[in-house]
UniProtKB/TrEMBL annotation:
This is Uncharacterized protein DUF3141. Residues 1-34, 420-454 are annotated as: Disordered. It comes from Pseudonocardia endophytica. Gene3D superfamilies: alpha/beta hydrolase. Signal peptide: none annotated. It comes from the Bacteria.
Length: 454
């Protein structure tokens, strides 16, 4: 692998960003790649490493299967039963659902605004919060993933009781021409309906959309929280970035336009899922083999089912929107360079002056931490009002993982709450009591099985 490109030192920002857990510094010139100058070499190395991981997982599972077979030698039909149960469990997929009670208060052909505010809290003196889920071929229910693991529930319990979420609807023939302008308009309509100003939380692709909105409408954003959101799409070592450089760099947008055309004008959600699985195939192999090993453990099977229902139930993405983001963000990286224009307006990240909170995953292979933390260098927010945190884990765990929801999100939402209404009461240690409430909103992770996820 080639050596990393490092930029000349830049003047330090006064005071530096506020760090609530170890976060890597980003020594990187915006818009320039970091970690590899040879995308082909990186992809070959990455895929070779993944192939080795898949082989190791198969070897481990094979050994476990032989041991299990020996232990069950007196029950030959049990293996058949377990195999059939394993196969039927893998094939039994259901549509993911919202778990917390909510009301749709605004609806368009491509998006809906859901109000999760409980009746008793509708008049609370607190700035409302809106969550923008990822828009990458999966259901928006990831932010209300299960009764035990819900980002919405955690936010409500932190004292931000007036909370909303945008739901991205599956693309249809009628909505295939939906543009980024349309997405920004529905965000603006939602926030105006909520009162005109909101705390904006953006996950993954919902994060760069939130950043663009905050840059264009800074007066409507009270605080901006981004999690696993690419801002500098070329920073760090990323298989998505490398693949885009290779594909678009040699053939332009033709391959992407062909994919959209083959699916009737929309980007296929199944194709997006295949790409996610191809990026980290060892997670898929491990998840299915661990299901076989634990097929008689109802707790493990239920956790597997909940994840698979969300992960494998895909939805198409509007073709016009998909092609725009590939060209302008993934390929040309215009957001970080300041070249991005939407509706005749330049998107200036320096226009963002509200408190900014950034959460990255230490092993996030979709959005490496440098892509996330690059935001700290380009926003106009004073350094003292920028908070960074690195969670232990990967990409999806940032939004629905029980560890991140119990340990990484609560301190960030405490800070947001501090900017949003009456000061939280303090206990004898001086820590806001809101944090204990938000931690209790998520299931205790001890002694419960984990399901391998990307």
């Amino acid at each position: 692998m080639s050596t990393a490109m490092r930029s000349p030192a830049r003047p330090a920002r006064s005071g530096g960003p506020r760090v609530v857990a170890d976060a890597p510094t980003v020594d990187h010139t915006p818009g320039q790649p970091v970690g590899t100058t040879d995308a082909w070499r990186y992809l070959l190395s990455y895929n070779a490493t993944n192939a080795s991981k898949v082989a190791n997982e198969v070897s481990r599972a094979t050994g476990a299967a032989w041991l299990d077979a020996v232990q069950r030698i007196g029950r030959p039909f049990d293996a058949v039963r377990r195999g059939m149960l394993w196969w039927s469990t893998m094939a039994d997929r259901r549509e993911p659902t919202w778990h917390l009670q909510n009301e749709v208060v605004l609806s368009t052909p491509f998006a809906a605004l859901r109000d999760f505010t409980e009746e008793a809290h509708r008049d609370d003196d607190v700035v409302p919060t809106i969550v923008l889920p990822p828009q990458a071929g999966h259901s928006s229910t990831v932010v209300d993933y299960s009764p035990q693991q819900s980002q919405i529930a955690m936010i409500r319990a932190s004292g931000l009781t007036r909370v909303y979420a945008l739901e991205w609807k599956p693309a249809t023939v009628a909505s295939k021409n939906t543009t980024v302008d349309d997405y920004l308009t529905v965000i603006d309509r939602s926030i105006r309906r909520m009162g005109g100003k909101a705390n904006v939380v953006g996950d993954c692709q919902g994060g760069w959309l939130a950043a663009i909105y905050a840059a264009l409408y800074p007066e409507r954003v009270n605080t901006l929280t981004l999690a696993g959101a690419p801002i500098d799409f070329h920073a760090g070592e990323s298989v998505i970035s490398a693949t885009t450089k290779v594909t678009a760099g040699t053939m332009g947008m033709a391959p992407y336009k062909a994919l959209v055309a083959m699916n009737g004008g929309n980007m296929s959600g199944r194709a997006v899922l295949s790409n996610f699985i191809g990026i980290q195939p060892q997670s898929e192999v491990s998840r299915q083999l661990q299901l076989l090993e634990n097929i008689d453990d109802p707790t493990h099977v239920e956790r597997y089912r909940v994840f698979e229902d969300w992960f494998k139930y895909t939805q198409d993405v509007p073709g016009a929107f998909y092609l725009w983001l590939v060209e302008n963000l993934f390929w040309k990286n215009k957001l970080i360079t300041g070249e991005l224009e939407i509706g005749g307006r330049r998107v200036d990240m320096g226009a963002i002056t509200c408190p900014v909170l950034l959460l990255a995953g230490s092993t996030d292979h979709i959005t490496p931490p440098p892509q996330m933390f690059a935001a700290a260098d380009v926003v106009g927010t004073p350094a003292k009002d920028i908070t960074t945190r690195t969670a232990t884990g990967g990409h999806l765990g940032l939004f629905m993982g029980r560890d991140a929801l119990r340990h990484d999100w609560p301190p960030l939402m405490e800070i947001v709450y501090g900017h949003s209404g009456p000061a939280a009461t303090e206990d004898r240690s001086g820590k806001a009591s809101r944090r204990r409430n938000s931690v209790r909103a998520v299931e205790d992770p001890r002694n419960t099985p984990r399901v391998p996820a990307p």
